[in-house]
Structure formats: structure tokens, C-alpha cells
Design goal:
There is one protein chain. By secondary structure, the chain is an alpha+beta fold. Among the domains are: 147 residues, no CATH class; 119 residues, Immunoglobulin-like. It contains eleven helices and eleven strands. The strands form three sheets. A four-stranded antiparallel beta sheet has the order 1-2-3-4. The longest helix has 37 residues. The chain is elongated, with a radius of gyration of 37 Å. The N and C termini lie far apart (96 Å).
């Protein structure tokens, strides 16, 4: 049964069904077009590019990153910043080109590698001395994880977009800020440059210099502690020296006479003595490492003579003969103990002095570091 009041409405609907259908269709198309346009605009925006960049980094997808990052321009600007601070590195007419290749190859290898978080004690390592003993890697093992987790975006006044991140380097004990610029062009929004490349290179140099200084100080302190232990075991009492020619008038023999006493509680099986012979005025004439293998029990005296043959007619031999009475300053370099322990003094080069290579205006430690040698890679260790 139809209600009387609904009959007119039903009749009106039937009469205008086409018009209503068209109206609804137009409304749906209008709404769809509006949201479609909004979605199109969003896909052209820096926000969408930032989302794509983040997705391309987690996990790294080199093909997609190549569309979103102008690695050629970025690596060239970074290479120029590196040459300003490390002018000696890859010096030559192809310096920028070589550094660009190093940077791009290193980043590609990083993108293709599988990062794993530090395990066990390594993840909690905060002992400065242990960190200094570890081989240095320029890019931390979790570089990409830190990069993606710290990425943020903000607009700059010149119409570009700045993308910021921070990388904490545990071995260098420093956090490095990264500021990238993203610009709009024919290919959409693309990361073009590392804005703070120059400042970043300066910060890296300062951090490397601080690490060199700290490593140098650690070795000095370690040698001092080892030397104290050595002297507490085998107390060096005297070192005297004399020199003269043999009957042939050509062979110079320098004799070093050393007295010591084992005042420790462990036997010494072998030893190496670092001896420097000087003239009366303190001029150093000769340095030799003198060794012997003989047991020296606790409480036992040690006496040893070493004969060093030299060419008496050589410039060095002539200086020794002309010097007059010789003095000897000596210290233990190595003690091999009966408990299988070996105490040893390591050579500590003055890595903080200027490098002696022509045109190298930087500390010697940079010259000696493998990260600045020909086999350099972004992931290369320094020791």
C-alpha cells in the first residue's frame, strides 16, 4: 500500500531522474577532479619528494636515489671543500675528478652494503682509550641508520628546501651536522648540494687532529708506564763507553759496558737496550739497539759488554774519534720475562710536527695515515 503523501515525490523523482543522475555525476566528477588535482599538486611538492627520498634510503635503493639526488654536483662541491682543507690529498691536475670518484664510489658501496647495529660490548663502548685503539672508519657503521632517523626538512628563504641530519661518530667523539639543499627543476625536486661542505671538512680536520693528539698522548703514557715497570724489574745502574782504532788503523771499535741488577720477582730471559752515545758537549754521535739472550734471576747482577765495529775513516767514525771521552745514555727497549710476558717500548713519531714532504702544510700524522694514502676509501681504516 502506497502512502498518499509519497506519491507526488515518487512521481517527481521519476520525471527528473535523468537530471538528478547528471547532477550526481557532475558532483562526483567535480569532487574527483578536485582531489585528483590536489594529489597531483602534492606529487609535485617538496614534501612528496622528501617522502620519496626517505623511502629510497630505507633500505637504500641506488636507482631511485639517482633520480632524487644529483650526486655529480654534490660530490664535486664536496671534493672542492675537501681540497680547501686537505690540499695535499690526491694533489694534481685531476684532484677534483679523483676525489669525486672516491666520494661517489664510497657512497655507492655504502648504499649497497648491509648495515648491522653494533653487537654486545661494541654497542656500549665508551672507553676513550679503547676507541682510540680501534681502526678509524670515516663513515660510522650505522651511517645510513643515523641519516634516515635524523632527517628533517624546512624551507629556505630563496625558495629551496633544506634537509638536515646529524651523524654521531663514536670514534671521533663528535656529531657532524649535514645540511642538504633540494631545488625544483625540470626533473622535479632534486637534492643538489651539501650546503655546509666547507664547514664539515674543517670539522673533520679538527676531529682527526684531536684523534692524532690523543693517540700520541696514549702511546707516550703507555711507554712511560712500561719503562717504569722495566726499571722496577731490571734496574739499570750504569752505561759507559769507550772507542779506539784497531791495529789496522781503519777499524773503529766502540765498547759499551752496562751494569744492572734484577730487583724484581721474575727472571729476565732476554733484553734489548736502546743506547745513545754522545760527545762531552752532549752532541749525539751514534744510536744502537744492543741485545742479548741470557737468564737473569731475581737478585742477580747483570754485566754485559757490547763491541760495535765502525769504519774509522768514515765521517761518523771521524766524529767519534774527534769527540774525546764518550758518554752513554741508555734505557731498556725490550725485556722478555720468564712468565712469557714481553715488555716493549714502542717508537712514537712526532706526528704533530709539520710533514716534511714538499708542499704539505699539515701534521706528519696526516702523511702517515692510510686514509690519506692512495688506497683511500670512505670505509678504509686508518691503522
Amino acid at each position: 500500500m502506497k502512502l498518499p503523501l509519497l506519491s507526488p515525490l515518487i512521481a517527481m523523482a521519476r520525471a527528473h531522474l535523468l537530471a538528478l543522475t547528471v547532477a550526481l555525476l557532475v558532483a562526483a566528477l567535480t569532487a574527483g577532479g578536485f582531489y585528483g588535482w590536489r594529489y597531483y599538486q602534492y606529487r609535485q611538492s617538496s614534501e612528496y619528494a622528501f617522502v620519496r627520498l626517505t623511502a629510497a634510503l630505507t633500505p637504500p635503493k641506488p636507482e631511485e636515489l639517482a633520480l632524487l639526488v644529483d650526486f655529480n654536483t654534490l660530490s664535486e662541491h664536496l671534493a672542492k671543500a675537501v681540497t680547501e682543507v686537505f690540499a695535499f690529498f690526491k694533489r694534481g691536475p685531476d684532484q677534483i675528478h679523483d676525489l669525486k670518484n672516491i666520494i661517489q664510489t664510497g657512497l655507492l658501496k655504502k648504499f649497497l652494503s648491509k648495515e648491522e647495529p653494533p653487537k654486545g660490548d661494541a654497542a656500549k663502548e665508551d672507553d676513550p682509550q679503547k676507541l682510540l685503539q680501534q681502526p678509524l672508519i670515516l663513515l660510522p657503521p650505522d651511517f645510513l641508520a643515523q641519516l634516515t632517523s635524523s632527517l628533517s626538512m624546512r624551507r629556505a628563504e630563496n625558495g629551496t628546501v633544506l634537509i638536515s641530519a646529524s651523524i654521531q661518530h663514536p670514534q671521533l667523539k663528535r656529531t657532524f651536522p649535514l645540511i642538504l639543499s633540494m631545488e625544483h627543476g625540470p626533473d622535479g625536486w632534486v637534492v643538489r648540494d651539501l650546503v655546509n661542505a666547507a664547514e664539515l671538512a674543517k670539522q673533520l680536520r679538527a676531529a682527526l687532529l684531536a684523534r692524532l693528539t690523543a693517540r700520541h698522548d696514549v702511546l707516550i703514557r703507555k711507554n712511560a708506564a712500561t719503562r717504569k715497570r722495566m726499571n722496577g724489574i731490571l734496574a739499570l745502574q750504569s752505561c759507559t763507553a769507550s772507542a779506539g782504532l784497531l791495529s789496522d788503523g781503519k777499524t773503529l771499535v766502540l765498547v759499551a759496558h752496562v751494569l744492572a741488577r734484577n730487583t724484581g720477582d721474575v727472571s729476565v730471559n732476554n733484553l734489548d737496550l736502546d743506547a745513545t752515545f754522545s760527545g762531552p758537549d752532549g752532541t749525539k754521535l751514534l744510536r744502537r739497539f744492543l741485545n742479548t739472550a741470557r737468564p737473569i734471576a731475581p737478585g742477580e747482577d747483570f754485566e754485559q759488554r757490547w763491541s760495535i765495529e765502525l769504519d774509522g775513516q768514515s765521517p761518523q767514525g771521524q766524529r767519534i774519534l774527534a769527540a774525546g771521552p764518550l758518554t752513554c745514555s741508555a734505557g731498556w727497549r725490550t725485556l722478555g720475562l720468564s712468565n712469557a710476558e714481553v715488555l716493549h717500548i714502542v717508537d712514537v713519531p712526532d706526528i704533530l710536527k709539520a710533514c716534511n714532504k714538499p708542499g704539505h702544510n699539515h701534521p706528519l700524522g696526516f702523511c702517515l695515515s692510510p686514509i690519506f694514502q692512495n688506497r683511500f676509501r670512505l670505509s678504509l681504516q686508518d691503522e
